[in-house]
């Protein structure tokens, strides 16, 4: 197929995405970003066009939307909307997190599910891709309210999931507490202790050591691999991190263990600069025990200051690790980071950089580690949790941590190999998309038109 015919084919499929998914810009963005990388892949693999892989891969295998009624502490009936998008099962059971956040709607869940398909493929483990969640805001809710909501959410979700079907986990707003309530309800509804139905479980009832830390640790391992290619180390480098949740906290922990110096955290109300380096014990206390805000951290930490509003990306650093949410770095913020001398950006959050921000980094020669590859350590360790559950085993911390580090090393190599093979040496974005896509596409061809 000529390059022109190929371009037209991609455009026709993308037009279908726009037509079938109106008003869902995040999903359009995620699909467009992958399509941009696939020209050279199709040039080498015309069988993917003939097999209509693209036409199929953009359509979720199943989308479930449901009512989640629950009763708040005042006795009032409340109603939220729940989602599970089972995107692609070519490589294994659907796998991906659940997000509880007021901004959740179909477009967010679909973009996350689409990304998850390729990310899970990159891990080398047998996992398809899916994502779910609800427009429920856990902030300001009591434990009992979160429990009643999680139980009601699981009452419907339980019909659609299972260790061989679909295995949810956490994401924004869903951590160990929520997974516990959901697992309890699933067990009660099914009368089965089916450990492999959810990951991110408590350590005494089927959870894996290192799953809590895995996304942040994996991100830093990926950064170290990127730096190694330039004969550099993380030791001594200043780091800006956004967010202050699961991914941010454990990225800070691993970076500090390796001598890096994270100096920022943020949440939706603003950011904190702590030039002496983030005090991790204090951060864990404020965020994980007290469920506080970053302003509370600044109030307790001499020398740190809280900036209300503004952008954490104004702070001059050598490495930037966005770990909060989608589209949190736009073109101007990327340009500020570049102007201030950033050398490396790696995405802990899903799709945190807008397309214009990515181009800004790439044009400036900044090393750019895309989310699909850089934050895959979380879901990879979920895959390791599923392995332990299947074997009724539980590994030591060191064993799970070593497996995680090896997987991140392998993902890094796969990205660079694919970037070479498809004509853009050193381009992690193209490499991640191409390597993730090819495995899923081959499996889909093997499995026929389904
Ligand atoms: N938890 C996991 O294993 C994985 C999470 N991710 C992604 O990492 C990101 C963070 O997730 P988690 O840390 O798990 O969630 P979390 O709920 O533990 O933390 C989210 C953090 O982001 C902050 N945040 C949310 N919206 C914000 C905004 N508009 N501006 C600034 N800060 C904001 C919150 O205040 C919170 O500190 C998300 O994009 C998620 O999809 C990616 C891979 C795996
Ligand atoms: O561990 C999992 O299954 C989910 C992780 C996740 O949601 C993600 O990679 O974005």
Calculate the mean pLDDT score and round it: 97
Radius of gyration: 21 Å
Secondary structure tally, helices: 17
Tell me the fraction of residues in β-strands, as a range: 5-15%
- What is the straight-line distance between the termini? 25 Å
Specify the structural class: alpha/beta
- Order of strands, widest sheet: 1-2-4-3-5
What binds here, in terms of ligands, is: 1,4-dihydronicotinamide adenine dinucleotide, 2-oxoglutaric acid
Number of strands: 13
Instruction: Please state the oligomeric state of the protein chains shown.
Output: single chain
What would CATH call the class of the domain at 212-365?
Answer: Alpha Beta
Silhouette: globular
From the 3D coordinates, which CATH architecture of the domain at 212-365 would you assign? 3-Layer(aba) Sandwich
- Low-pLDDT residue intervals, each spanning 5 or more residues: none
Q: Main beta sheet, described? A: 5 strands, mixed
CATH homologous superfamily grouping of the domain at 212-365? NAD(P)-binding Rossmann-like Domain
- Estimate percent helicity: 40-55%
CATH-derived topology of the domain at 212-365: Rossmann fold
SSE order, one letter for each helix or strand:
HHHHEEEHEHEHHEHEEEHHEEHEHEHHHH
Protein name: Glutamate dehydrogenase
Binding site for substrate: 95, 116, 119, 170, 382
Subunit structure: Homohexamer.
Keywords: NAD, Nucleotide-binding, Oxidoreductase
What is the topological layout?
Elements: H1 3-20, H2 25-44, H3 46-50, H4 53-57, E1 62-71, E2 77-88, E3 94-100, H5 106-122, E4 129-134, H6 143-157, E5 166-170, H7 176-190, H8 211-228, E6 238-241, H9 246-257, E7 261-262, E8 264-267, E9 270-273, H10 280-289, H11 294-300, E10 305-308, E11 319-321, H12 331-339, E12 344-346, H13 355-363, E13 367-369, H14 371-374, H15 377-390, H16 397-421, H17 428-446
Parallel strand pairs: 3-4, 3-5, 6-7, 6-11, 11-12, 12-13
Antiparallel strand pairs: 1-2, 2-4, 8-9, 9-10
Helix pairs in contact: 1-2, 2-5, 2-17, 5-17, 6-7, 8-9, 8-15, 8-16, 10-11, 12-13, 15-16, 16-17
The structure holds 1,4-dihydronicotinamide adenine dinucleotide and 2-oxoglutaric acid.
1,4-dihydronicotinamide adenine dinucleotide is lined by residues 170-173, 215, 242-248, 266-268, 323-325, 328, 348-350, 375, 378.
